[in-house]
Amino acid sequence: MKMSKKVESLLKELTLDEKIAMIHGGALFATSGVERLGIPPLVTSDGPMGVRLEFEPNEWKPVGHSDDFITYLPCNSALAATWNRELARESGKVLGEEARGRGKDVILAPGINIKRSPLCGRNFEYFSEDPYLTQELCVPFIQGVQSADVATCVKHFAANNQETDRLTVDVDVEKDVLHEIYLKAFKAAVQEGDSYTIMGAYNKLYGRHCCHSDYLLDDVLRKDWGYDGVVISDWGGVHDTIEAANTSLDIEMSVFSNFDEYIMANPLKEKVQNGEVPESAIDEKVVRILNLMEKLHMLGGERKRGCYNTPAHREAALNVARESVVLLKNENQVLPLDINKLGKVLVVGENADVCHAFGGGSAELKVLYETTPLLGLKSHIGGNNQVIYTPGYCRDLDGVNPVDWRNIESEDVDKNWQESSLEGGGGSTMKEEQVDAMLAQRRVQLREEAVALAKECDTVIYVGGLNHFYDCEGSDRANMKLPYDQDVLIQELLAVKPDMVVVMMAGSQVEMTEWIEQAQAVVWTWYAGTEGGNALAEVLLGDVNPSGKMPDTMYKTHTDCSAHAIGEFKGGEKVTYKEGRFVGYRYNDKFDVAPLFPFGHGLSYTSFAYDDLQVNREQGVISCLVKNTGAVDGAETIQVYRSEPQTKDSLVKELAGFEKVFLKAGEEQKVTIAVENMTEDSNILVGASAGDIRLGIKGNG
Ligand code: BGC
Hints:
The protein is an alpha/beta fold. The protein has 17 helices and 26 strands.
């Protein structure tokens, strides 16, 4: 194994007890160091949208001080909707600096699992249904984080595509599909992104738990991909001492505080002492950990300091949020709203007035502030217009109240959800909402109030969608329906205000079929960070021209998604990915299932014309002319899809390149785009979405 002189001499000095202490959790988020040799503990933290709050070392109790508020970054799905590699790098850099600023060595992010079903509770933490888009954005994100002397921990390796029975479910998927769809971004993350660490998933693959799967960790990760970084288990993902010792897992973490009883603690030590496991197996793990510490300058040398909650970080969060907003529909040019013609404004919908950052599972955050849509709109519209708010619907009788971490004392939180997250198979499918009579009555009352107010107002903006009771670790949704009777509410509001702007805020797809025809203007936004409300207001008022594109297919209903139509998505022992490679738009294309909005869809306040496609197969690039043909400046993401000569099992097309360009009104640019795996036979399709192909050239096949 490769190691420096320093690591070599440290290894010689370390006792078995010290080595064992380094390879498992000695606190909920840290390993133990070896003070006498100057080896510090390895300190980790969640998560993908910002650095998680500080817990007591041995208990899931927030420390409760005022020094761990952070910048809340737009979730990974939002970042994917920007289709902007530079923003991904910037976002990663902010996360890295904040993690370092909070004294962390490893940030447990990004989540790069493929969104196989719209119902997966953790979709908001992931980028896309498409492996190429995920790869292209996670690589610069990782490089951004690691530029701050903090390691990323890409997760969850691998095939962790549902929360239902996530600790026990055994995934079966054809090997070539596994690599093509589910492992592609992980390979890029470690090879191109050079992610210093990777997290094993909870689930099983081919009968073995991923955290000690010899196929995944030894054959694929170490041998085929040549990975020499550190493999960390998901929290409580290790189940077998011998397997854990003999595979390439390096660190065991868990949710309990009986650290000495962890599988890679005393039980492993005993097996080394009685000769069942060679000490050299432990040494390999220790060397990889020491190598990581060297890369992060933890064993000497100059290490970057980091910083958190800076104005620059908030500005970066705003830039990402701006480009993540997707304009789904805009008939009669309802949008942008003219600030001088707003009249009396009504904002309807609980999501307009709710902070989301504190929820979602391990992605929860303690943020300094979160700009809600209502706050963003009011602060942009200013005092000359009357802006009134009414919830229109409610989650429960108390509404969804943002947690104010300032008021939480550690005694208030007896047992964090995470401590019990390993009970009963660790994950469930949500039951359909049970509504009692009082709640049903309250919703009717809120709806009537909203409709009455809408009649009196000149401009109506609806902000609904999901929240982290739905987009949440540990459970999957039962279907894509909007909760809390929102479909009825939206229809009744549209009946009195046909030009109402409908804003959907969620981390994964929702059904819109009941009112989409009726609605003229529909905007999609996400858990969009500290500045999300401001970004949304800027888009609605036309200060920012929307340029987001959906990173997923917007199905009409969940059974239009292959995992449900022809595959399996369920609890129990085994889930077979019968749909094979036909995931996301790959299925809709092949089986002719029309989506509500195609993958890559997103409109602008301007329009773009495409022309003059040139393909250079030797260099693997294409070029075309793109012109902003409208009256305002804007950005377009030019998407390149590749298709191969058709056979029964081949894809109709797959994303193989994209570039986002900013064009002034009237400006034309020649755009050159690298295309992955282009051959002489590849047909090339260029367009504004998977459903809006503008140019094409056939291959020789
Ligand atoms: C999650 C991981 C997370 C870990 C630590 C687990 O429940 O699956 O994504 O990083 O907890 O909080």
